[in-house]
């Protein structure tokens, strides 16, 4: 009896490796980007959580990084 | 904030493929998947132009309209994203997209294509922002890090502009005024205008007093 139980447990354990990951049908809710990320790659001096601050950060970065007429005026 | 948009300035693009490389590196994309490509218009003809093309995050995205499993969603900033856990890799979005944005990795069983992959405007996917799961499926979430898409930030001539539609349009308009040419923005009308490419123009109401 004990051997049978042990054998069944072993089989279950081995078979559990064949189980697929859970999938959710329909789009999951996505967190807004202004919330920031805890991964440590955020821009220095900027912290997530405030929508206005995030929008301002992107605008400033866009103007500084892409508007060369602003960086080197005529 | 206005919607997130891409503009590629054909007068400035030198076909260096820096944007393509930046994208592949940033998101560690597999072999065969190119979220961004540089396309040459009128190749070989004097005055040829190059543009960098990826998902334009259309206002009225045709990929969203044709997806049979509704895996697409749009963020508040107008970025078109999709859920790879829902995507079945049918390829309908690939046929619908006017920019050839949807990509399909080919390492599936028996050579079958896998789940669709496309430009995310560096905004990740439905997984937690900045998580490992999000990175593995969709790549880096630069927007949540307070940055703009890597392709535009790495562009050596600043031909590719990305970000708040008002800001990029303002930068581009200023350039056009200063150089007095090159106002054509390839793909802008298809992606962001209310009238889609190939769609019949809507009838305008007759103006009172207009001659017939």
Which class of secondary structure composition applies to the elements of chain B?
A: alpha+beta
Number of strands of chain B: 6
**What CATH first level of chain B would be assigned?**
Alpha Beta
Question: What is the tally of helical segments of chain A?
Answer: 3
Q: Give the uncertain stretches of chain B in residue-range form.
A: none
- State the CATH topology of chain B: Alpha-Beta Plaits
Summarize the helix and strand pattern of chain A as letters: HHH
The proportion of residues in beta strands of chain A is under 5%
What's the average pLDDT of chain A? 83
Number of helices of chain B: 7
Distance between the terminal alpha carbons of chain B, to the nearest Å?
42 Å
Largest sheet of chain B: 2 strands, antiparallel
Give the % helix of chain B.
10-25%
Instruction: Please tell me what the overall shape of chain A is.
Output: rod-shaped
**Under the CATH scheme, which architecture of chain B would be assigned?**
2-Layer Sandwich
Could you give the count of β-strands of chain A?
0
Characterize the structure shown.
The complex is a heterodimer of chains A (74) and B (212). Chain A has helices at residues 2-15, 51-66, 68-71. Chain A is an all-alpha fold. The longest helix of chain A has 16 residues, at 51-66. The termini of chain A are far apart. The model of chain A has no long low-confidence stretch (mean pLDDT 83). With 212 residues, chain B is an alpha+beta fold. Chain B has one domain (4-192): Alpha-Beta Plaits (2-Layer Sandwich), CATH 3.30.70.20. Chain B has seven helices and six strands; from the N terminus they run βαββαββαααβαα. Chain B has helices at residues 18-27, 62-66, 92-96, 132-138, 150-154, 165-179, 188-192, and strands at residues 4-8, 37-41, 49-53, 72-74, 80-82, 160-164. In chain B, the strands form three sheets. In chain B, strands 1-6 form a two-stranded antiparallel sheet. A two-stranded antiparallel ribbon of chain B has the order 2-3. A two-stranded antiparallel ribbon of chain B has the order 4-5. The chains are: A mainly alpha (74), B alpha+beta (212). The A-B interface holds A 23-39, 41-43, 46, 48, 54-55, 57-59, 61-63, 65-69, 74 and B 1, 69-73, 75-77, 81-83, 85-86, 123, 125-131, 140-141, 143-148, 152-153, 158, 161-164, 167-168, 171, 174-175, 178.
């Amino acid at each position: 009896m004990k051997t049978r139980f042990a054998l069944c447990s072993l089989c279950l354990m081995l078979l559990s490796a064949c189980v697929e990951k859970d999938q959710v049908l329909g789009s999951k809710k996505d967190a807004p980007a202004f919330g920031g990320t805890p991964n440590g790659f955020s821009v220095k001096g900027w912290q997530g959580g405030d929508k206005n601050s995030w929008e301002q950060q992107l605008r400033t970065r866009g103007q500084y990084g892409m508007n060369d007429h602003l960086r080197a005026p005529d | 904030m206005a919607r997130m948009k891409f503009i590629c300035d054909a007068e400035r693009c030198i076909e260096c493929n820096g944007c393509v490389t930046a994208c592949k590196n940033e998101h560690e994309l597999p072999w065969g998947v190119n979220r961004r490509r540089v396309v040459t218009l009128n190749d070989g003809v004097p005055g040829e132009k190059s543009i960098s093309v990826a998902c334009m995050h259309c206002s009225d995205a045709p990929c969203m309209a044709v997806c049979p499993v509704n895996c697409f969603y749009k963020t508040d900033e107008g970025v078109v994203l999709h859920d790879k856990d829902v995507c079945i890799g049918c390829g309908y979005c690939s046929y619908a997209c006017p920019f050839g944005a949807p990509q399909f990795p080919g390492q599936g069983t028996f050579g079958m294509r896998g789940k669709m992959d496309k430009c995310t405007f560096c905004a990740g996917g439905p997984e937690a922002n900045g998580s490992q799961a999000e990175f593995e499926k969709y790549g880096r979430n630069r927007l949540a890090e307070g940055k703009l898409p890597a392709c535009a930030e790495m562009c050596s001539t600043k031909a590719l502009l990305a970000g708040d539609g008002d800001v990029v349009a303002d930068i581009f308009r200023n350039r056009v005024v200063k150089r007095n040419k090159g106002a054509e923005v390839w793909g802008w009308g298809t992606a962001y205008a209310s009238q889609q490419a190939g769609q019949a123009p809507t009838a305008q109401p007759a103006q009172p007093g207009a001659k017939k």
